[in-house]
Backbone:
């Protein structure tokens, strides 16, 4: 077990370096904006551009740049500095992490609890109006992009521009420690919007999985034993949850991607918004930092899901 | 054939399922009874309605949208009209059931002990630790070695025979008055089959419960059953005390079943005689006698007339649903049991050959 986890973490580390290399190449080689030109002001002299490139280290060859980058990470835990305000990437991300964590954790809880609850109810009330309504709704939510849903939510329910002034609108985020109630209110819409897609996927998966399990022989045995129906359902849910745990880790990537869009729409000062701005401004080091952070979360989530899977299914053995 | 003290009495039971292809007549009017401490064997091919009839006894076909008619009297109470909550109190408590495939019938993610504890606590208000002690005791009772350790094992860590023993332990956990065993040995090796049957007989003696054993294997009921009912296409076509069924079978389908099993004392050269054809559709069963398309001895009007169970003259408790005359049947069987092929028996008795 420990050996397995250590091996998986080492693999994850290797994967992170590959991800770093890919983003590195992607943004520097592909024709994005040259940060030196973007920084040099209007009608810059070529000499000035060269000078800025030298200061930013962009004049060195790509492998040397990458080597310096990786070296700084491992030796000094330094992910470089923003080209714009010279702030270190680490402190930029640190500063914005609480907002993103608030958004992602809240949405994650809503996603899992909401998705599974709707899925279970749909499976048990199969072919009823309730089932058809929730599954139809789920299909709509799966198909709807977050930024569109977000704009729709603002249009209808934001307290400034909405038709029904229900929740604080875009840009209303406040820190949890500053104003807990304000924090909660400002995140209600972003949570719902971010969770909706993944919750809908989970509801449909859970429904399918549970319907299949409820036809199993061991569920018939549970009934034949004289268990009460809630206990029978619990045994069914216990097995139908397993295949879904695997998908949890996949869906976390989707959630993080969605967080970027939701933060942009609701103007939440989180890592997603940071990534969004840094991409527009070709702020390479910041892009790199946010991408690595997201990759790390996805890799850790995958390891956690695999461990959880083995814990949930006694037939799974670590090798 | 009705006696008041029957523990379980199924009367004129019909179970029908609506499907996309039409209504499946899974059980088509059957009547049988089981007395306290006795064993009834129900024999038939797959799809003859054996399993559905027993699941219906426990009310397990209710939720599948089946239409059920008739009566299932257990100690005088009609199980078909009992509300779900009262039926639940009987399930696993007074009537227990074991199934064909013990691997799929046990929950893969709970320990065996946990599942036993669940069965015990479903009907007894005892603390978990107490139920666990009882679970260990039950596993020991059904012959699982080291029950104290095995109680924490998962079903996949058990062998097939041990799983079925665990299923039996679970069924016995509340000392039921009736045990329904649906193909309890079919998924097991022959040697393990014998062990499981011996175990069931021993437990029956010790606990005094009645058993309904459902199987396609006449060998299994020969060992265990006091009475045997043979089912075909959702009906009982012959019922008799075990001894009488093996010595004087009256229905050509029963002859077919007996002819298709090998016997140790038979001549080695003797070929087994399979029953031709396949089990009939339960959506549109054949007209007349449901068995006539597969019967060597069918006569033209057997496709029109629907036989009912008639008592066999001179034999108490022996009934058969066959349109051949009793005398003809007796002569046919004496030919067949002497080793003749169905064709020879036909010409010997002087019946015209069936049109099939």
Residues:
């Amino acid at each position: 077990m420990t050996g397995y986890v250590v091996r998986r973490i080492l693999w994850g580390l290797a994967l992170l370096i590959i991800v770093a290399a890919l983003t590195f190449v992607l943004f520097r080689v592909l024709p994005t904006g040259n940060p030196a030109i973007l920084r040099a002001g209007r009608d810059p002299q070529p000499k000035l551009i060269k000078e800025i490139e030298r200061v930013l280290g962009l004049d060195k060859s790509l492998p040397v740049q990458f080597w310096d980058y990786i070296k700084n990470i491992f030796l000094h835990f330094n992910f470089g500095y923003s080209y714009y305000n010279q702030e270190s990437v680490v402190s930029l991300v640190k500063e914005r992490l609480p907002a993103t964590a608030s958004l992602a954790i809240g949405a994650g809880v809503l996603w899992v609890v909401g998705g599974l609850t709707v899925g279970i109810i749909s499976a048990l009330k199969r072919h009823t109006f309730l089932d058809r309504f929730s599954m139809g709704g789920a299909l709509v939510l799966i198909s709807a992009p977050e930024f569109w849903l977000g704009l729709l939510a603002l249009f209808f329910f934001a307290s400034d521009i909405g038709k029904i002034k229900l929740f604080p609108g875009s840009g209303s985020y406040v820190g949890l420690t500053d104003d807990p109630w304000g924090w909660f209110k400002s995140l209600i819409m972003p949570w719902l919007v971010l969770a909706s897609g993944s919750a809908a996927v989970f509801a449909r998966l859970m429904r399918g999985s549970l319907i299949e399990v409820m036809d199993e022989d061991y569920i018939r045995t549970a009934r034949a034993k004289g268990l009460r129906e809630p206990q029978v359902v619990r045994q069914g849910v216990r097995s139908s949850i397993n295949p879904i745990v695997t998908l949890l880790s996949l869906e976390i990537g989707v959630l993080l991607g969605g967080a970027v869009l939701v933060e942009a729409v609701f103007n939440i000062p989180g890592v997603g918004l940071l990534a969004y701005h840094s991409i527009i401004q070709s702020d390479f080091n910041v892009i790199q930092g946010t991408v690595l952070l997201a990759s790390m979360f996805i890799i850790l989530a995958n390891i956690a899901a695999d461990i959880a899977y083995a814990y949930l299914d006694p037939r799974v053995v670590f090798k | 054939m009705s006696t008041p003290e029957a523990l379980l009495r199924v009367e004129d039971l019909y179970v029908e399922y609506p499907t996309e292809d039409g209504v499946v007549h899974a059980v088509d009017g059957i009547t049988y009874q089981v007395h306290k401490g006795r064993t009834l064997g129900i024999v038939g091919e797959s799809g003859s309605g054996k399993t559905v009839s027993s699941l219906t006894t426990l009310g397990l076909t209710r939720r599948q949208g089946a239409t059920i008619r008739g009566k299932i009297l257990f100690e005088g109470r009609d199980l078909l009209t009992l509300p779900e909550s009262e039926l639940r109190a009987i399930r696993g408590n007074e009537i227990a059931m074991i199934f064909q495939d013990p691997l799929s019938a046990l929950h893969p993610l709970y320990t065996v002990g946990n599942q036993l504890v669940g069965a015990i606590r479903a009907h007894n208000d005892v603390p978990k630790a107490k139920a666990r002690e009882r679970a260990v005791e039950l596993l020991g009772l059904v012959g699982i070695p080291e029950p104290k350790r095995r109680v924490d094992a998962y079903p996949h860590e058990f062998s097939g025979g041990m799983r079925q023993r665990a299923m039996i332990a679970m069924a016995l956990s509340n000392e039921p008055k009736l045990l329904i065993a649906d193909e309890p040995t079919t998924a097991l090796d022959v040697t393990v089959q014998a062990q499981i049957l011996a175990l069931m007989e021993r437990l029956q003696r010790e606990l005094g419960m009645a058993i309904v054993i459902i199987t396609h294997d006449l060998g299994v009921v020969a060992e265990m059953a006091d009475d045997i009912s043979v089912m075909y296409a959702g009906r009982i076509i012959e019922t008799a005390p075990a001894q009488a069924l093996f010595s004087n079978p009256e229905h050509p389908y029963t002859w077919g079943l007996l002819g298709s099993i090998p016997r140790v004392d038979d001549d080695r050269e003797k070929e087994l005689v399979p029953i031709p054809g396949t089990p009939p559709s339960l959506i549109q069963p054949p007209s007349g006698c449901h068995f006539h398309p597969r019967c060597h001895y069918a006569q033209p009007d057997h496709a029109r007339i629907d036989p009912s169970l008639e008592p066999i003259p001179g034999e108490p408790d022996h009934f058969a649903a066959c349109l051949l005359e009793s005398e003809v049947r007796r002569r046919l069987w004496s030919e067949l049991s002497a080793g003749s092929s169905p064709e020879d028996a036909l010409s010997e008795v002087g019946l015209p050959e069936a049109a099939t």
Notes: The first strand of chain B starts at residue 8 and ends at 19. Chain B has a mean pLDDT of 88. The longest helix of chain B spans residues 190-207.
